[in-house]
Structure formats: structure tokens, C-alpha cells
Amino acid sequence: MRTNRLVAFTVTAAIAGITPIAIAAPSQASDNLTTTITLTVSYGEPRVVYGDDMSLTSEIDSSDGLSPYNDADTATLWAMPAGSTTWTAVETQPASGYISWTDFKPAQNTAYKATYSGGTAANQYADNYAASESAPLGVEVARKITYPKNGFVIKGKVTPNYGKKKIVIKVSKKQNKGYKSFKTIKTTSAGKYKVTLPRRGGTWYWSFVVKGDAKYLANGFVWKTFVG
After folding, report:
1. For this UniProt entry, which residues form the secretion signal (predicted)?
2. Distance CA 198, CA 182 (A)
């Protein structure tokens, strides 16, 4: 009688001709990205009259074409007034793709810049962002000069810091050309002024000009009189 015996055996990978598959460890997902931040005027020109609000806008982009999104990142607006060599922080906000810097009042001609803090990835699914800085943006400030609504007695005040200084008055028969010197007056120590215009027959235009300096733009207004 023949007995069939079952023989147990194992086949190794080498014997079977099978190549083992190596399982790689998960790769690090964080990228090291560069960034850029810009600073522009929100609307109009980069100049205001003393006491008026200024609004600027910043945009932050990274080298992957997207905006940084690490929660702890910040952006800061800096100011350096004319005559100074030091940047001073004006405002800091959480960083985002678009930032509005609003409702601040430049006290004089001032250079502004915006900086982005950069950020380190909080986990393997976030990215590392390098810090960046915008080009400086110059904002010019004209002195404020007030005047009445009508009449031949013209009085008002020039601010800031315009005590004992000149206001040049010129006159013309035409609004946009042909002005000739009429007189130069001086403000009081508080920056106030007052002058009475002559009652000349016909229509006349009177130009009042406050000269500029290193800290402020020139400013002025044109006054119209009529005697029939």
C-alpha cells in the first residue's frame, strides 16, 4: 500500500524570482518659498493736505504664485518723516494677500515702507516663507490754508508751523494766466493772516501762495472778486 505524504515547504523571494518592494518613508511636504510685498496708494496721488487721511495698500505674494497663509505671520507699515533717518512702526496687521493701511494722517512729507515678517511651517503640510520688504513710497504733505467763503476781507490760518512767514499774493484779469505781484504779507506767530483786497471794477483773480520747504509742499488758492 502506497501512502501519499504531504510535504510542507516555503519558497523564499529569491527562489521564486520575486524582487522585494521597498516602502519609502513619507517625504517632507514643506517648501521654502521667497516672498514679495508691495506698497501703493489706495487711490489718487501720493499727496495730501495737512490733517487729511491717507490710505495705502499692500499685496503679499510667494514664489509658488499664492499668498502666504501661516497664522502667525504679520505685516507692518513703517514711516520715516523728512529729515529723519529712522523708520518707525505705524501699524502691524496679520499677514494676508491684500492689506489696507487706512485712516492715518501724515504730519509732513514722509517715506513709507511695508514689511512681511516671514514664517516657519507649523507642520509638514505648511510652507516656510522668507521675510520681505517693499520699496519706499514717498507721500507729500501740503500745509493747510483756510479762507472765508466770500468778501474782500480775506483771513484765515496756515498750519502747521507757519508763524511769521510769507504769503505771496498775485493778481490777474484771467484765471489761469497773466498773474502779477500784488503784495506779500506775513502771518502772525500763530499762523493767522488777514488782508483787504481793493474793490477794482470788473472781475479779478487773486492768487494766494504759501511756499513749500523740505517738510511741506507749497499750497494756495485763487480768489475771485467782481465789482459791477
Report:
1. 1-24
2. 11
If one counts every other C-beta atom within 10 angstroms of the C-beta of residue 28, the result is: 8
Instruction: Indicate the DSSP class of residue 82.
Output: T
Q: What is the reported pTM?
A: 0.81
Q: What is the pLDDT of residues 208-219, one digit of tens each?
A: 999 999 999 999
Give me 8's grid cell.
510542507
Residue spans of alpha helices (H) in the chain: 13-16
CA dihedral of 110, 55, 129, 71, whole degrees rounded to 10: 130
Question: Cβ atoms within 10 A of the Cβ of 205, count?
Answer: 18
- Look up residue 35 and give its amino acid: T
Residue 6 CA neighbour count, 13 Å, CB half: 1
Torsions phi, psi for 13 (to 5 deg): -60, -35
